[in-house]
Write a structure and sequence with these properties.
There is one protein chain. The protein is an alpha/beta fold. The longest helix has 16 residues. It starts with 8 loop residues before the first helix and ends with a strand. α3 crosses α5 and α9 crosses α10. The strands form three sheets. It has a three-stranded mixed β-sheet. The chain has a three-stranded mixed β-sheet with strand order 6-7-8, with helices on one face. Strands 4-5 form a two-stranded antiparallel sheet. The radius of gyration is 23 Å and the shape is elongated.
Length: 214
């Protein structure tokens, strides 16, 4: 039976998450983000479903154009930013559709979404798009803070015992500064086994580097 990866979004997300409604006024949004020290907040409808996200980037046009009117070129080339500068509510200023992630997504998948879409935070939603939490870049880095002892126990229990049921007792696992070293007597099918072993360890511990002496 496949080994389930233990590091998923629900392990590190912040829940419950603070969100704003469609009709939340601009100033209240700014105050909420300042009080929470966050760079973005989800926007939800009356049923708690995520309909958009308001980020610092969405709010800045109002400040940029506060003391001056846009030039003719800006009216043509920056019409979306100008619309946000005139916005008064979350629904008017938010970015949509929201880039979201599900609780059972891996940390690697969440990190990839953030990188591709250039965002710092992701709303976490269920199958009905209802807000479950929020995951940030900082949350994703929590996986790097696990003690070596925890990694060692996990690799031994969920990887070595699964792949080498007949030799698990003879395979030694050690971890130092996130580097996993395996010593053992397994030789048959070495190349295919190595590839599978690396994949299993990486799926369980994204911070771990792997050395094998077999």
């Amino acid at each position: 039976m496949p080994v389930n990866a233990p590091h998923i979004v629900s392990d590190v997300m912040t829940a419950p998450a603070v969100a704003v409604g469609r009709d939340t006024r601009f100033k209240r949004i700014v105050r909420t983000m300042d009080e929470l020290h966050v760079s973005a907040v989800p926007v939800v409808d009356g049923e708690g479903r995520v309909v958009g996200v308001v980020s610092e980037a969405d709010l800045l046009p109002k400040e940029e154009f506060r003391d001056r009117g846009p030039t003719r070129v800006e009216r043509i080339r920056r019409r979306f930013e100008l619309a946000k500068a005139e916005a008064m509510t979350a629904e008017q200023v938010m970015s949509r559709p929201a880039v979201v992630v599900h609780p059972d997504a891996t940390l690697a998948q969440a990190a990839r979404l953030m990188a591709v879409h250039r965002v710092k935070r992701l709303p976490v939603v269920d199958d009905e798009d209802t807000l479950c939490g929020v995951v940030s870049r900082g949350d994703l880095l929590k996986a790097f803070l696990r003690p070596d002892e925890d990694i060692e126990e996990e690799v031994r229990r969920t990887v070595v015992s699964y792949l080498f049921p007949l030799h698990a007792h003879a395979i030694h696992v050690s971890v130092r500064e996130g580097i996993v070293t395996l010593h053992g007597p397994v030789h048959e099918g070495r190349r295919a086994l190595d590839d599978r072993l690396v994949a299993e360890v990486e799926s369980h511990e994204r911070r771990a580097l792997l050395r094998m002496v077999m």
